[in-house]
Amino acid sequence: MGFFKSWASRTKSNKRSKPQRSRSRVGRRRGIRLETLERRDLLAVDIVFDYTYDDAGFFDTQAKAALERAATDYETRLLDTLTAIPSPTGGNSWTASFQDPETGSTVNLQNLQLAENEVRVFVGSRNLTGSTLGKASTGYGVQYTNQGWLDTVLWRGQTGEDEQSTWGGSIAFDTSPTWHFDVGLPTSGTTDFYSVALHELGHIFGISNQPGNTWTNFTQSLAELSPSDQALVGNEPGDYFTGPKAVALYGSPIPVDGGHFEHDVSYAGAEAALDPNLTTGTRKAMTLLDWTALDDIGWDIEHPTTFLETNGTENDDEITIDLIAREIRMNQEITSIPDTLTELIVHGGAGTDTIVIIGSENFKDATLGQGTILATDATLSLSVDEIEIATVSAPTAATSTATIHDTSSDDRLTTYPNKAIFTSESFNYTLDGFDETFAISSHGGTDLALMYGSPGDDTFDSSPNTANYSGTGFANHVSGFAQINAYAAAGFDHAILRDSSGSDQLTATPQSTQLQGTGFLNYAAGFDQVNAYSTPTAFDIAHFYDSIGNDQFTATPIAAQLKGPSFFNHASGFEQVNSYSIAGGFDIALLHDSSGDDRLTSTPASSQLIGQGFLNYASGFDQVNSYSNAGGFDIAFLHDSTGDDRLTATPGSTHLQGSDFSNYVAGFEQVNSYASAGGHDLALIYDSNGDDRFTASAITAQLAGNNFLIYTHGFDQVNSYSIAGGVDVAHLYDSSGDDLFVATPTMAQLTRDTSLTYVQGYGQVNSYATAGGNDTASLYDSSEDDRLTATPRSVQLSGTDFLNYATGFDRVNSYANSGGFDVAILYDSGGDDSLTATHNSAQLSGTNFFNYVKAFEQVNTYATAGGYDTAVLSGSTGNDSLISRQSYTQLSGPGYLNYALAFELLVASGGGGSDVANLYDAAGDDQLIASGSAANLVRASGRRVEANAFQSINAIASSGGSNTLQVSMIDFTLHHVGDWQLV
To answer: For residue 724, how far is the Cα from the chain centroid?
Structure first.
């Protein structure tokens, strides 16, 4: 069995360092005491290099000296005693296996004998592949007849549970680099041989990913780590060394790459020797982390340790610990700090004690709380207690972290970039120069944190009782504080506020934002952008306030934002968002729907869009636009102002506006608009390209089509336009007062006492007078041939592309002035009706109806419904012709024809010119009486026709019966044809 490890060269470095954990001691040492633990004089492990395989003569005096220096580092630190491996007996044997450093082939040495503590390493050189600088190998095989021989070869007397052993191995060094063998530091472009030798010897002593060895057993994947260790490594995927001593030193499990620490793993500012890379022109020595890892895998490592402990007086002490000057100044007494010191303990004692700690460029971290301070400077651990006032400074060159713990009283923390001030009833702390500061409030009291930003671009990120404020060169963190206030400086600064699991309230203005709930309040002032987040665990509400400039509010079911010329406030996930425009400027609100069924309510003062799980409210905005495009069946309710307002509605959008407000909606399936507040309000409603239906009454109007409905209530005037296409129909209803309906082929208008409805472009308009009052309708023809049909109940005038219908009107006037050959058909009622017709007009009236027509080329009137109906027909000034038969009578002349059917009494008069009347008998006994200028024909049915002022009258008997003719003085020409009996 064997393993082989490679080490690659590199030309660039991106160093990473992790802080050492601060450590506190239990109990106290009294007085000033300096203690150093010395190493043993008798060295244990003895590394013997064997040059048998150095066929190329790589190892000259310089190379051997550099190799021995690396070996000495191990020999002075490894304290183990290794037993000898003697010549075997009694059927026992063993094989030392390794790669020939010159050829790379496997070498098997039978029964290699090793002295006590001897570790044999065969060295040589060859051209290694890629950027590999060195390669170590080792292996063994054992045949044994007793357990003692196996233990001798494998463990060499190391009998403890966590022990390590080795017989040795081989190391091959690459022949291609420009090697640096000197004691001094390497120069640019050279590769330090000493550093590579240290690294490869680490593999010989067990730092490898050989299956089953201790290093491998201590290596775990991220998933295998405990939850707390996963948190320590930031949940970063990879493998980690979990040796307990190394973890305690490093502060977390250490990232590894196979049989190495991961690239750029460092300790105390120095990169680990056992990471896989080496920068040309640099040297890497073994770090304490490397030695501690060897300790973890079973080697006994000497760790020189020193500490210094000092006490203050019973009075007020002034103490300075200067880690640059390496001295302690206590009440003018100066004590030097040895370079070998690893632990320093200072006790303030009684009185109000003040301490100043000045860190060096290697200053790492400081922890302060309730009179104690724990700090680390390079390899020095500092512990201070019984201190009331403290100032801790970290140089700019240091990468440093500070932690502050609160007291049980009401404490106050103020942080700035690279500075923090903590005050309580008993303690005052000042931290200066730290890159990162943590403040933890966990001991009670109502604690306040004030956090200030830098002139650069900063970010404030807060949750209940917790916040991080960071920018270039600084990061301040607070945790557990009841109230956290953050103040932005110059630059573009961003604040993030996160909610709790309870019901919280956000209040945001252009100047500041605060989020508060049970037990916390987070406040941000002066930030260019603020983002607030609410998780769906409780009902959270947000309030936005505008600036004096022109602002815009945008809200969706999951997020809302209000932005202006110099601010941007955003809220995500809040169940209710209220936005207020009260400061001035022209402000616009944009409200967006959800995929469910939503409801919008808009007034001149406010708008509210509500749906499942959300409510967005805008108050005081000059313009509010609401959009329904996400799905669901959405309804909008729009309300007017006390002034004169105007509504414009299409199937896709509706806009209600007045003198100081504008509410616009788009995409809603139904829009209801109400004019009830006062003023003279006008609604303009437009159709779709489909078949639409418009219905209007004295109070309401609605236009309905495919997937839309527009409804109005209380508008003084409603205009509806059919211009987009489709077969559209309008229905207009009267009021209880006296109403007037006017209709042309292109428009119609119903005027009521309190409202007016106007339609344009509709193919059919139906008007209904059913509510009462004395209602009149006026219908106008087109320039083409039109047809009027009128009954006592309704009138319809139709032509090419139009139909106007009026029902229930007390009077209907119909006009054919526009051209074409127009025909009017009039029907009587069941009562006694009266027809009056001239050459250019006609009117048929009866109980509760009056139908009037004018300028129709032909008027046909039918008296067939019952009652005693009379007709008066008057001719023109031209030559007119009257024809009267048993069932009908018609009077015609130039440009007109009046036809009357089934009237009980009909009187026809000539109007001048050569007028002729033809009177025909009926099937029964008829009687004609001619006298003066008139001729009366009384038919057997009782119907009577009178012809007046005709120049010529022809009496024609052709239907049978006994007809009589009675003539007295007449002033017209009378001709009788057929069987008449003169009496």
So the answer is: 37
Q: Please, what's the b/e burial string for 686-719 (b: 16 or more CB within 10 A of its CB; e: otherwise)? A: bbbeeebbbbbbbbbbbbbbeebbbbbbbbbbbb
Give the integer Cα–Cα distance in Å for 935 and 920: 12
Residue 231 CB neighbours (<10 A): 11
Place of tokens 């005050």: 423
**DSSP three-state, residue 465:** coil
CA atoms of 363 and 451, how far apart (whole Å): 24
Helix locations, 205-326, DSSP H: 214-217, 227-232, 244-250, 288-296
Helix, strand, coil shares, percent, the chain, to 5: 5, 45, 45
In sequence order, the 6+-apart residues with CB closer than 8 A to the CB of 60 are: none
Residue 154: half-sphere exposure toward Cβ, Cα within 13 Å? 13
How many C-beta atoms lie closer than 10 Å to residue 77's C-beta? Answer: 22
Q: What is the Cα–Cα distance from 167 to 161, expressed in whole angstroms?
A: 19
Pairing of strands 106-110, 870-874: unpaired
CA proximity to 854, closest of 908, 955, 778, 776: 778
Distance from C-alpha of 811 to C-alpha of 843, rounded to nearest angstrom: 10
Could you give the angle at the alpha carbon of 909 between the alpha carbons of 903 and 910, nearest 5°? Answer: 140
Q: How many CB atoms lie within 10 A of CB 319?
A: 22
In order of 322, 377, 393, 466, 768, the CA distances from 418 in angstroms are 19, 18, 10, 19, 83
Rounded to whole angstroms, the maximal C-alpha distance in the chain is: 178
CB 901 within 8 A of CB 862: yes
C-alpha–C-alpha distance, residues 166 and 168, integer Å: 5
- E strand segments, 130-236: 132-143, 168-174, 179-180, 191-192, 219-221
- The pLDDT of 910-917, averaged and rounded, is 92
* pLDDT recorded at residue 360: 84
Instruction: Measure Cα distances from 338 to 24, 286, 359 in Å.
Output: 20, 22, 15
Secondary structure (DSSP) of 77-107 = TB------B----TT-EEEEEEE-TTT--EE
- Domain residue limits, the chain: 46-296
Print burial letters for 152-163: b (CB count within 10 Å at least 16), e (below 16): bbebbebeeeeb
* Residue 340 pLDDT grade (very low, low, confident, very high; cuts 50, 70, 90): low
Q: In 3D, which of 870, 887, 886 has the Cα closest to residue 831?
A: 870
DSSP H helices in 271-397 = 288-296
User: What angle is formed at CA 314 by the lines to CA 312 and CA 319, rounded to 5 degrees?
Assistant: 30
3 state DSSP class of 868? coil
Report d(CA 669, CA 272) in Å as an integer.
69
Least confident of 59-63, 309-313, 853-857: 309-313
Q: What is the pLDDT of residues 10-29, one digit of tens each?
A: 222 222 233 332 322 222 23
Residue-level pLDDT at 12:
23
Cα–Cα dist 268/816, whole Å: 107
Residues 739-757 as b or e (16 or more Cβ within 10 Å = b): bbbbbbbebbbbbbeebbb
Placement of tokens 């009026």 in the chain? 806
Is the pLDDT higher at 312 or at 282?
Answer: 282
Tokens representing residue 503 in the block: 């019901």
Residue 320 identity: T
> What digits encode the pLDDT tens for the residues 596-638?
999 999 999 999 999 999 999 999 999 999 999 999 999 999 9
Which residues 6+ apart lie within 8 Å of 42 measured at CB? none
pLDDT, tens digit (0-9, with 9 covering 90-100), for 423-447: 999 889 999 999 999 999 998 999 9
Q: How far, in Å, CA of 430 to CA of 388, rounded? A: 11
